[in-house]
Structures are given as structure tokens and as C-alpha cells.
Amino acid sequence: MSIDLIAAAKDQLPEDVGKSGPLGLLLTLLLLIAVFFLVRSMSKHLKRVPPSFDPTDRIEEIPDTPAELLDPRPGEQVLDELRKAPRAIESPRSTGHDRPDQPPRD
């Protein structure tokens, strides 16, 4: 019985089922053309990327005298004050219970 159903189903299928048509070829060609232009654009952009992002204008400041080693640089005093100042955001203090909306357990 199942053999008869399979044979009947094969008789009803048209010839070009499972074959690609001209629309599939057109779609494949359009996708290949799009990929070609994307690769070309990406290669142009990659050619403009510098080989290194490290700043090249960095010059080490070597002091001329030993006194310059001890003199504060501009902005150094502000940084020291900020380091000594209390934090604006402090970690939560432990009150002995997990949630602040519950009273502590005794």
C-alpha cells in the first residue's frame, strides 16, 4: 500500500521540482556582485588604517637639573588633592542584615 502511495506521488511531481531556475541564477549573481563590491570597499578602508595606533610625538622629558626632579609638574598638586579627598561614592556599609527595608534580626 505504501509503495502505491510513493509511486502515485512521483507521478504527480512536475519535472523541474528541485532544479534551480533562472531566478536562482540571477539571485546568485547579484549576491556575488554585492560581495565583490563589499570586499573592494573593505580593502580600500584597510589601506587607510595606520600600521600602529601608538602616538609617535611622545617625547620623554629629561630634566636638566636635579632640582627639576623634585619640582612638581603642572597639575600634580591637583592630582595629589584628588587622591587624598574622600571618595564621592563609597561602598555600602554593613549593617548586619542583607536588606535595608527589613529590621535587623536579634
Walk me through what this model shows.
The protein has helices at residues 2-12, 22-48, 66-70, 76-84. The protein is mainly α. The protein is elongated and about 100 Å long. The mean pLDDT is 76.
Nutshell version of this structure?
With 106 residues, the chain is mostly helical. It has four helices and no strands.
Task: Supply database-style keywords.
106 residues; mainly alpha; 4 helices
**E-strand count:** 0
- Helix and strand content put the structural class at mainly alpha
> What is Rg?
37 Å
DSSP helical segment count: 4
Itemize the secondary structure elements and their pairings:
Blueprint: H1 2-12, H2 22-48, H3 66-70, H4 76-84
